[in-house]
Design goal:
Radius of gyration: 17 Å
Oligomer: single chain
Strand order of the largest sheet: 4-3-5-2-1-6-10-11-9
Shape: globular
Number of strands: 11
Order of helices and strands: EHEHEEHEHEEEEHHEHE
Strand content: 15-25%
């Protein structure tokens, strides 16, 4: 197996993608197993992996119509914990030593996130799953992924989403949209491209974080990204 190009990575998984092709329920368990198998391959390759997952398969806090925004976002953060525990179970079944953490106290369900403790887990080959977002409303899981990636000093953040990269316009609205192999954060921000939260893009730009965006439809794209294959779009202002 090849050496990883990126020794330590944070992989942000689309919550919505965990539903797969299912019309009912919140999980496609075969998708969870495929993701776990891909993460195992990355660990076996020698990569240190932190995971963070959204909650789009369960709840989107910002879209809590008529609700107090803080309450709606809190529900979204709790929903990420359901996905966090599901991922931990899938990884454990795949033979991967994984630790579930939370940005808020969760008692017996997950340990409270602390940067130094998370780095220790990673250095021992354990996958660290970062649940609960940032623990504060008004911030998306994209922002949580960028902040945790910076805290953990990763070589790159991989955003595995429902789209296979960054396009110059919305491919759902424009059939002639062109996928970009590389893109600057300035371009994303100036053109208000929705592929990543703008707050997250600004934070990544200010701190020089490299982000690789790829499609989670095929979880093996995560392996390819960690190995340094050309896939999706690289976002960077280098």
């Amino acid at each position: 197996m090849s050496e990883p190009k990126y020794k330590r990575v944070l992989v942000k998984l689309s919550g919505e993608a965990l539903r797969g092709q299912q019309k009912d329920g919140i999980f496609d368990f075969s998708m969870l197993d495929r993701i776990a198998a891909s993460i195992k391959s990355c660990v076996d390759m020698g990569a240190e992996v932190a995971l963070l997952v959204g909650a789009g398969n369960i709840w989107r806090g910002a879209k809590g119509v008529g609700m107090n925004r803080s309450c709606a976002d809190s529900m979204g953060m709790l929903a990420t914990m359901i996905n966090t525990l599901a991922l931990k179970d899938a990884l454990t079944r795949a033979g991967v030593d994984a630790v579930a953490t939370s940005s808020s106290e969760m008692g017996e369900y997950a340990e409270l996130y602390r940067r130094d403790r998370a780095v220790e887990h990673l250095s021992h080959g354990q996958v660290v799953i970062l649940g609960g977002g940032l623990g504060n409303p008004y911030f998306t899981t994209d922002s949580a992924a960028v902040l945790r990636a910076l805290e953990l000093d990763v070589d790159a953040a991989i955003l595995a989403k429902n789209i296979d990269g960054v396009y110059d316009s919305d491919p759902k609205k424009n059939p002639d949209a062109v996928k970009l192999e590389r893109v600057s954060y300035s371009y994303i921000i100036d053109n208000r491209l929705g592929v990543i939260d703008l707050t997250a893009a600004e934070l990544a730009r200010e701190n020089g974080l490299k982000i690789l965006l790829c499609a989670l439809e095929d979880p093996e794209n995560i392996i390819r990204a960690v190995a340094g294959e050309k896939i999706g779009t690289i976002a960077s202002d280098e």
